[in-house]
C-alpha cells in the first residue's frame, strides 16, 4: 500500500482531483446507504441535492489527494486571514484551530506547519494495523505532530498549548461515549465533543476557525481563517452549541466541499 501511495504522490494534483471526482460519484451511485445519508444530511441543512452536487465529487477528491499530501511535495497554499494567527502569536498564546469536515483539512495543518511552526493535530488511530502504521509513518512532517484520541494524546495537546504552540481538531467528528454532549447541528441533536472547549479554557488559548478550500484545476488550497469572537463558554453544553453554530457558518461558506456523507448524527455505542 505504501508503494501505491508513493506512486500516486507523483501525479499532478489536478489529475488526482479528476480521479477523485470520479470515485466520489461511483461511491454515491453504488452505495444506497451512503447516498441516503448524504441527501438526508444536506436536506437537514436546507440544501437540495442540486445545491450540493459538487460535494459528491469533492468527497472522492478528499481521498485521492491524500497520497500527494502525505508523500509528495507540498501543494501551493494561499492564506485568507493570516493576521489572526500573527496577532495570537504576538500575544504569546497557544492556538486551538477548529476545522469541520470541509475542504481539505490536511492542507490546513500542513500549511500552518510550513509557515508558522509546530502544530499538533488530533486523530483517531485506524483499527487495521497496516493502515495505522501507514498513517503514523506518512502523516508526520516537519513541525507537524499527531496526537491520538487517548488520555496521552490529550496531555500532548495540552502541553503544546501551554508552550504557546497550536493544535487542530475536527469538532464535528463524533466522539466516543462519555466525551461529548448532545447539541444542535443544523437543527438536529448531534453528539458533539467537549474536548476543544476544555483545552482552550484550561490553557487560556486563542480559538480560531479554519478550513482549507480546494481550488480548481489543481491550483492548491486557500486556507480561510475566522476569529471565534468572544469568550469560550465554561458550560460544556453551551460551548458545544456555540462550536456547532460556528461550524455551520463555515460550512455554509462552501457547502459544495463539505462531507455530507459523514455519519454526523450517529449515536456512539454506550451513549444515552
Structure report:
This protein is α/β, with parallel strands linked by helices and 272 residues long. It has one domain. Helices cover 46% and strands 18% of the residues. A seven-stranded mixed β-sheet has the order 1-9-8-2-5-3-4, with helices on both faces. The chain is globular, with a radius of gyration of 18 Å. The mean pLDDT is 92.
Q: How much of the sequence is in beta strands?
A: 15-25%
Largest sheet: 7 strands, mixed
Query: What is the 3D form?
Result: globular
- Strand tally: 9
Structural class: alpha/beta
Number of domains: 1
End-to-end span in angstroms?
39 Å
Radius of gyration: 18 Å
Features:
two-stranded antiparallel ribbon, 272 residues, single chain, globular, 11 helices, 18% strand, seven-stranded mixed β-sheet
Give the topology.
Layout: H1 2-9, H2 13-30, H3 32-44, H4 54-64, H5 66-71, E1 77-80, H6 82-90, E2 95-98, H7 105-115, E3 119-123, H8 129-138, E4 144-148, H9 151-162, E5 166-169, E6 180-185, E7 188-193, H10 195-203, E8 206-214, E9 221-227, H11 236-253
Parallel strand pairs: 1-9, 2-5, 2-8, 3-4, 3-5
Antiparallel strand pairs: 6-7, 8-9
Helix pairs in contact: 2-3, 2-4, 9-10
Amino acid at each position: 500500500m505504501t508503494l501505491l501511495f508513493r506512486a500516486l504522490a507523483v501525479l499532478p494534483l489536478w489529475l488526482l482531483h479528476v480521479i477523485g471526482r470520479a470515485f466520489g460519484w461511483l461511491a454515491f451511485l453504488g452505495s444506497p446507504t451512503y447516498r441516503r445519508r448524504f441527501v438526508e444530511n444536506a436536506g437537514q441543512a436546507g440544501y437540495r441535492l442540486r445545491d450540493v452536487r459538487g460535494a459528491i465529487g469533492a468527497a472522492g477528491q478528499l481521498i485521492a489527494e491524500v497520497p500527494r499530501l502525505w508523500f509528495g511535495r507540498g501543494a501551493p497554499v494561499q492564506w485568507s486571514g493570516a493576521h489572526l494567527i500573527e496577532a495570537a502569536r504576538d500575544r504569546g498564546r497557544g492556538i486551538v484551530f477548529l476545522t469541520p469536515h470541509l475542504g481539505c483539512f490536511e492542507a490546513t495543518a500542513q500549511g500552518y506547519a510550513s509557515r508558522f511552526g509546530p502544530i499538533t493535530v488530533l486523530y483517531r488511530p485506524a483499527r487495521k494495523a497496516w493502515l495505522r502504521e501507514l498513517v503514523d509513518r506518512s502523516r508526520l512532517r516537519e513541525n507537524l505532530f499527531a496526537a491520538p484520541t487517548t488520555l496521552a494524546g490529550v496531555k500532548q495537546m495540552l502541553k503544546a498549548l501551554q508552550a504557546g504552540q497550536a493544535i487542530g481538531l475536527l469538532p464535528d467528528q463524533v466522539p466516543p461515549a462519555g466525551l461529548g454532549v448532545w447539541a444542535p447541528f443544523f437543527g438536529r441533536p448531534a453528539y458533539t465533543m467537549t474536548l476543544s472547549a476544555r483545552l482552550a479554557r484550561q490553557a487560556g488559548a486563542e480559538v480560531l476557525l479554519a478550513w482549507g478550500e480546494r481550488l480548481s484545476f489543481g491550483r492548491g488550497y486557500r486556507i480561510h481563517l475566522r476569529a471565534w469572537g468572544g469568550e469560550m463558554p465554561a458550560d460544556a453544553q453551551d460551548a458545544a452549541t456555540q462550536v456547532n453554530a460556528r461550524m455551520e457558518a463555515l460550512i455554509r461558506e462552501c457547502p459544495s466541499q463539505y462531507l455530507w456523507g459523514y455519519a454526523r448524527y450517529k449515536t456512539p455505542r454506550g451513549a444515552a
